[in-house]
Structures are given as C-alpha cells and as structure tokens.
C-alpha cells in the first residue's frame, strides 16, 4: 500500500538538494517541509558539489535556466550520481524553446535520472527531441484521456525502457511507469492548474519519496503523485466562498502537511497496467 | 463597460512572457492565472526570443536587475515588437538608482511599450530623466491627490503623448491615460501598499488585459487597474480579526480569481477626463 | 520594556536594503512590511551602492550565493559601513559548504556587522572557521538546551566580544548577546521550523529593529527575536483543523502585522544573564 512510502518520508526526513526555478522555489521548499523532508537550494557551480554531498537526493528543474545554473546542474548531477543519490529531472517547458529542449536532452544524456517527470508535451519532446509545448502547459492536442490511455501507457513504458528510468506523465490522468508496469492515477483536481508550481512541487515530492524508499522507486513515485492529487482534493474540499487560487495554493501544501499513510491508502485512486 | 474587457481575458487566456524581479514573481504568476491568463517566465538571453514568440504579450519589470536580465529584456522586447505583441514596462525603482533609471530610460528609448506603469515618482523620473524615488515607493511629496488632480491628469496625458503610449500612474488615485483621455480611478485600499508586489501584479494584469483587448488598450488598461483595486476592496472586506498583510496578499489574488465582468462593472469607480 | 523598540519601528519605518536568497525573499519583504518597515532588494553590483545610500540598514543573507551577488554584498557593505548603517549578517548554511563558510568568513572579516544571526551550527562555524552543518538546519548534536545553557551563553558572549558585534543564536532557546549581557529567550514554537524562511524573516526583522533603535541595539535585537517568537505562538493559536505549514507561514507574518508594543511586553519571555 502506498501509505507506507509516505510514512518512510516522515521517518527518514530526506534532505533534498533542489536546483529549481525562482518562480516557485518557495512553494517547493514548503512542500518538501510539509512532506516531512527538508530542502536546500543551491545552483552556484562552486557550491553545488558539497551541498549535494550532504543531501539524499537531487531535484533538477529547468523552469528558469541560466548558463551558470546549467553548469551547476551538471556538477551537482555528476556528484549525486557518484554518490548514488536518487535524482529527478523536471524538464519544465521542454519543447517551448530550443534552449530548454536542448538543456533537458543534454541533462538526460549525460546524467542518469531515476525519475523524469513532465506533462505529456514535455515528455514527448524528450522522446523525439522536438516539440510544440504551449508555454509550460501541455498542448491541448496532447493529453492523456480514457480514449488514448492504452497508447499512452505503452508510450510511457517505452520511454521508461529506452531511458532506463521511471517516467511520470502528469495530466488529467497521471501515469507513473517503468519498463514493465504503469500506475494509472486518477487523483487530483483540474483547478490545481490554476496554481503556479504544483508541478514543481510534485517533482520535489517525488524526489523525497524515492529517497525514502530507494528499493521501490516506482511505487514511491506513484505514491507521491497520489499524495499530491489527494492533497489537491482535500484542499479543494476546504475551499470557502470567495477563496481562489492563492488560498488553494496554501491549502494544498497544508493537506500534504497533515496527510497520513492511512489517509493516502484510503484516498489513492490508481490501477496498475 | 469595463467588465467586457475582463471577460475577454477569461475567453482568450493570453500567455504572458514575464521578465520580472525574483521578489514577487510567484505572486505575478498566480495573479495572471487568477485573471484567466497564463504566465511564462524567462530572462535568459538565449531563451527569451523563442519564449516570447509563443506568447501574446511581454511584461518587463526592472525590480531586480542583472546585466544578463537586461540583455534578455532587450532581445525579448525586439522580438515582441516585430511580432506586434502588446508590451508593458514597469520601471520599478526608477529614480532610486542611476542604473535603474538608465535601464528604464534605455528600454523606453529602444522599444515601444504600449503601456508604461509606475508610481508618480517613477513616471516623473522617466519624464525628465532623473528622480528622487524613496526606494520602490513613491515620494510623499509626489502623490496624486484631489488637489493636484488637474495638473496630474495633464501630466499623464503629456507623458502619453510624448511617448506615444498609455501611461498608468498608481497611487491613492490611479490614472490611466493616453494623449487625449484619462481614466481617473478611485478603487483600491491603502493597505495594498503593505503587500509586496501588488504593483508588479498589476503590471502583469494590465498586460493580460491589453492582450485580450488589443483594439481598446486604454479601456483595457483602466479595467485592469479597476479590477486590481476592486480586488483589494473585496479582499479587505473578507479580512478577519488577526489577519494581516500575508492573508491580504492571498485574498487579493483570490478576489481576482472570482471576479466577473458584472462585479467589475458594479464596483469600478472611475471618471474619464 | 521591549515593546518600545517595536513601536519605534512603526514610527520610523526604516527602509532596509536586502541582499538575500531567492527562496524566501518574498516572505522577507512581506515580513518587513508587516513590522512597519519597508524592503528594497538589489544585489546587482552596479546598483547596490546607490540603493543602500537611500536606505537605513543592510541585511545580507547568503542563502543562495552567486559570484555577482557576493560582489554586490561587498560593495553594498562598504557603502553601508561608510554611511554608518546598521548591518546584519545571516550566514545561512555556513558550515554546509566551503564556499558558504568562506563567503561568510570573508564578509565577517572585511565588514563590520552590528548583528550576526544564525543557528548554533552556523555561528560555531564562524567561531572556528569550519563546521558540520546539516543543510541549512542546525545539527542535532548542537543545540542550545537548558542543560548546556551556561556554556552556550558564555560562548555567545565570547563570540560577541571577539567580533565586536551582537550575536543572535536561534534554536529552541534563542540567545541575543553582546560581550557582557545575554538575553535568553523562550518564545516561539518548534513548528516554525516547518516553514521555510522564518530565519531569514527574523534576520531582516532584527535589521529593522536595530535601525529604529540605534542606541540600544542589543535590546532591539532581542525584541525582534521575541516578536518573531510571539508571532509564532499567536499564529499557532489561530491554526484550525486541516491547516498546515503554508497557512502557518501566512499567520506568522499576519501576527507581526498586528502586534503592538503592549502585546510584545505581555508575551515576551526572556531573562538577561
């Protein structure tokens, strides 16, 4: 059951090194703290190697790239790899610009990420090296639906096999797959798309979960996706008249803060294909 | 009526490229999402041209300048101009330092902004190339009041005429003017000044409004100013004992999230001079 | 009584130049506004000298260092020193990496800070030039407790004497000391550690307090520490079922916004040793 993965995060309190965009970095930090993990941010090339060495995992998010930041990602990634730290790549906006696509592809080629997480546009971009992402959101033509689910599950497995990683594809239906198994997850609320950074928060959360559950990373990644979705549902149920996306943002983090393994077990909605 | 401009934002969901300061960038993103628009942030010179090309508008805010960021602004601005994208300049702190003043002046000289938005100290600085801004807030000696309103309205129109743009001057009374007409707006609450970034949020909101209403940019800019002010009023009315500026921040964004055209029509308080 | 120091912040509204990390910068800005002070952020080397010259104090936080940012810190620090502005150093993560430790040491050597504030791991690192900080949080082995309080009070006084500054050491028990006197402060809630940036907010708050009370900086620094702790207590008492660290973050800032001198006098729990 997925709740155990959550409890392991509470018990192990992994420290996650985040190299992430400046738009949502504060929410990423508070989300990690809410989950029972801890954040440390550093992207400066001369700082990242040591910082990563005192952490358990490395979360790389390309939301607002700088040249120095990319250098930092590569140095930190190399160190994390040598240390065997679980690493997550969040290729925000891959497909939206050549620089983002190329950076994500380069990172994926030169480092081994345990989990690559993106929306379908981003993951498709990584799968074929080009894309037509609409900004940082998935193209409308490109969503996982009940109709194309079989195809998408196979796509996820193929991607995971080719890249020897776990892939998480977020959308109305979320997928978390390795080469052989795919969690099809139906938690979450569409209104989460009105809060900036829920995707980034999820990326960091996945990293905390796989760090605390290194032997069952697929289950752990799926648990993180379910936890985020359940948090979105709980948070929405607490919304009052006049509340909007800013309050929703806070309530989602609050819901992760209060989530127990038992709650996750009860509310997670997924099947394995 | 101004409500129509708001509804056009809901319907068109413009994607706004923001090159903005790292202090308030998260709130800017959530404010755009609250309004029905979408944000994408990128300031890296090698990324900005393509990013701007997939957007509808470009918001430039000089709140925390870096050399590379300024280069990014110029490249993005050039691309946006070629594409005919509505552009807003938010000269945060112009007058507070030579570097800010010079950067704002240079941007204004080399690019054509559809709207320039600032407090009176910032706009006066741009009008005469120097200033005495107190930090990022307007000098006390320099506010738009009922007493000097005629002079200020004329100042706004003259600035708009000289720069062939719309100017928005924020303060206790807000002005939105082109060369011929000036909206004098009396929405908002003074407590909004206790929330960091309400000005930045307004700048981005104006950008969303003019993108969704390209043929009536003055009315659209005025509608955005009214919407922000009305949001401040609604948010304040929802404050409870013990709430302060952090809660107020959230409630302002929430109020924009829930605002309808009818509400804006009902609550907007303005005259045209 | 400490409440007077708070009221002086309300009356003087000091403008604080902050060179701080991008993770918690927004909360730092809102915390300063909540306290009655005002923030301005700038780290660009060519901007910082003039910005600092229009401010009352300079807050330097090394949470996310960049090479240019460090240059900015030195230039701003030199200018602030010439102008006699109260300066606070927040050596976030000193001990966690050589670069952070070295930068903090260098800043401490080349500039005179009126207050140096950190957790015990960070301050010990500065005291002996090395450390074993766990990320940005204090090592478990290294906390101020009732058992080691005498030793820690003496350590704080010795550090303050050696560095000719006030030192603030945060933890379960907070210490604020100069060479002769040490405030031992027992306000606050351990749950504040689940909110990113409460330490950064405190650093900036101390700066506002010492700027508004330049002749009694030790008392003012202690008052800021008490105010932050009391805010954490008030905020916690307002938490409802389902609330978590995101809501707590907002309520802490709200509590500072609403705090009066009388409330601080009533709730501050400290002794002087």
UniProtKB/TrEMBL annotation, chains A, B, C:
Its cofactor is Mg(2+). Pfam families: HK. Belongs to the Thz kinase family. Substrate binds at residues 41, 197. One of its GO terms (molecular function) is ATP binding. Pathway: Cofactor biosynthesis; thiamine diphosphate biosynthesis; 4-methyl-5-(2-phosphoethyl)-thiazole from 5-(2-hydroxyethyl)-4-methylthiazole: step 1/1. It catalyses: 5-(2-hydroxyethyl)-4-methylthiazole + ATP = 4-methyl-5-(2-phosphooxyethyl)-thiazole + ADP + H(+). ATP binds at residues 117, 170. The gene is thiM. This is Hydroxyethylthiazole kinase. Its EC number is 2.7.1.50. Keywords: ATP-binding, Kinase, Magnesium, Metal-binding, Nucleotide-binding, Thiamine biosynthesis, Transferase. GO terms for biological process: thiamine biosynthetic process; thiamine diphosphate biosynthetic process. Catalyzes the phosphorylation of the hydroxyl group of 4-methyl-5-beta-hydroxyethylthiazole (THZ).
């Amino acid at each position: 059951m997925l709740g155990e993965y959550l409890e392991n995060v509470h018990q192990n309190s992994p420290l996650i090194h985040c190299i992430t965009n400046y738009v949502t970095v504060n929410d990423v930090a508070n989300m990690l703290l809410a989950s029972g993990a801890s954040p440390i941010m550093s992207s400066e090339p001369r700082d990242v190697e040591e910082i990563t060495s005192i952490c358990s995992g490395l979360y790389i998010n390309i939301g607002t790239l700088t040249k120095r930041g990319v250098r930092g990602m590569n140095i930190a990634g190399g160190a994390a790899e040598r240390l065997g730290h679980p690493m997550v790549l969040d290729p925000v906006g891959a497909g939206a610009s050549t620089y983002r696509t190329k950076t994500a592809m380069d990172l994926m080629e030169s480092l081994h990420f345990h989990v690559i997480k993106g929306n379908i546009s981003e993951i498709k971009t990584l799968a074929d090296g080009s894309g037509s992402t609409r900004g940082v959101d998935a193209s409308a033509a490109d969503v996982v639906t009940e109709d194309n689910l079989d195809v998408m599950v196979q796509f996820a497995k193929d991607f995971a096999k080719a890249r020897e990683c776990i892939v998480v594809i977020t959308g109305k239906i979320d997928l978390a797959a390795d080469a052989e198994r795919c969690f099809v997850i139906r938690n979450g609320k569409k209104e989460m798309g009105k809060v900036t950074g829920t995707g980034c928060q999820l990326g960091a959360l996945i990293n905390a979960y796989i760090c605390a559950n290194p032997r069952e990373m697929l289950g752990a990644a799926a648990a993180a996706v379910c936890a985020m979705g359940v948090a979105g549902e709980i948070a929405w149920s607490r919304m009052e008249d006049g509340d909007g996306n800013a309050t929703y943002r806070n309530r989602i983090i609050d819901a992760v803060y209060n989530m127990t393994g038992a709650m996750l077990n009860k509310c997670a909605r997924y099947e394995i294909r």
